[in-house]
Amino acid sequence: MVRLGFIIGFIALIGVLLSGLAAYRVHDQELALDGIALARAIDVHASLVQDRLTERELLARVASGLFRAPSVVKANMLQPLRSAIYAFKTDFVVASWIARLKPGDLPVAQAELKSAGFTSPTIRDFDDKPLDIKTINKPIDVLMDVEPRNSDTLGAPGRAYDRHSVIGPMLVQAAAAGKPLASDPIPLLRQNGPIGIVLASAIVPEGSTEPAGFVTFSYELAPLMLTNDDRSLFAVVLKDPDDVSDEYVANEQGVVTLRPLKQGDPLPSVVRTVTFGGRDWSLGYYAKNNAAQRAQQTAMIVAAIGLALTGIVCGLFGYVAYNNLRLSREIQVRIGFERRLTAVIDELNHRVKNILAVIQSIVTRTLRHGSDMDVSRELLIGRIHAMSNVVTLLSESQWQGVKLRGLFESRAIPHADRIVVNGPDISVSARAAQSLSLLFFELASHSDEGLSLVGKHPHIVANWEVTGEEPDEIFHFRWEEFNTSSATRREDSDFGLILLDRVAPEAMGGTAKRYFTDVSYVYELTAPMVTVVDMTERDRTGEISAPLR
């Protein structure tokens, strides 16, 4: 059983190690695959964003190339470009013409704005505060035309952007750069409008170094960042070009807000840089799924499956091995039972032969030639009854011995009511029990049945004791019949004399004597305790009768 447990434990250990190794490998593979998938998706997204920005920058270049600077101040300069800029199917919010006007051109510009139908045809500051054009002594950049024209854009023309904190410096830089230039993110159309970027391209007339104005395109930030893909593996943000601790984030509705980063906030998994409007922009990518947690969960599932399979294998192996072990034990028990049965039969045959030999001797000695048939029949029945009684007692004790007091029962010994028994309650062996049972019957059957000299029945006392110390203990037995004499006591038969003087003592390896006193008849038997108890016979009987294992 210990060996079986060791084997099952070894199999379980191998299964646990393999399950752990498989879970570890799956964990690493999941992390690697998620990392590869995320990196590839980010690279594709960054490439798409760059392509999108390049297309819009190309539109600004084409529009500035097609635009012809007017020789006079006009308010409807985008009319020739309308078909061209819409042919690109771009997603600009507002396209505008910002003219660089000299102080003397401002009254004419107001007249043009009024004739074009704009709702606020006056030259004013970018926040719609009025300007005193008479006090202006240098060229200013004024919005003269917009596309598309709607309720949100018709009120914008007439605004001057020289003092605007974002657009003003951007126009100066665009004039110096000679190529489209992008502004910082700002609200479009109105103060609380969507956040976007303005891309401006300077229009420089031939033979001049100063721009006549700027063609601008305004774009919302969310479409430029491609943030509307709910199934993507990441969330994209735009780092604030003025403060790296802030970032522009688009929500599920595509509304972009500025989010300040706090200490302890997670950093983007990957940062990519794109170019737009002559500037570098940093895109931050946050993984939507926790790759480490997902890998751990997958590894736990793999480990659980491995442990379950290990448990099933160990259970099946244990079940089969246990059944084989049980079958082997049953076979061994069966073999042992057959051996035990053979030993029991041999022992039974031996004991039956002994009993039959004793009975044969009893019958032969009792029915000897010339004996009185009535007396012989009575003695024969009593002796066989005594043998039957001791065999019954031995069977009840599984031949482990008989209590000495049990041999004095009235069903086996005549006149048992007259016998006073004294002595320790010891168990005698089967062989000693058979001899003592016949001995007691012979002694009791020959006691006087008539009246004694004093008119009383004989009084019988049976005493025994054990003296000495193990293993030299001695068994002493004394039978004494009071109120009797050689004249009144029935004479012992030949078989009885042989039993009293030779058979019983020799069976127990001892000696015996009998005699009359002045008032009694005495029989004494002395034998070693080891033969009276006979532990060898008891142990052999115990082994035969013990339950099989």
UniProtKB/TrEMBL annotation:
Listed GO MF terms: ATP binding; protein histidine kinase activity
Root EC class: transferase
Transmembrane feature ranges: 299-322
Source taxon at top rank: Bacteria
Domain annotation CHASE: ranges: 68-252
Record InterPro entries: CHASE_dom, Sig_transdc_His_kinase_HWE
Catalysis performed (reactions): ATP + protein L-histidine = ADP + protein N-phospho-L-histidine
Keyword field contains tRNA processing: no
Domain Signal transduction histidine kinase HWE region: 347-425
Assigned EC number: 2.7.13.3
Keywords, comma-separated and alphabetical: ATP-binding, Kinase, Membrane, Nucleotide-binding, Phosphoprotein, Transferase, Transmembrane, Transmembrane helix
A Pfam short name: HWE_HK
The protein, known as: histidine kinase
Source species of the chain: Bradyrhizobium jicamae
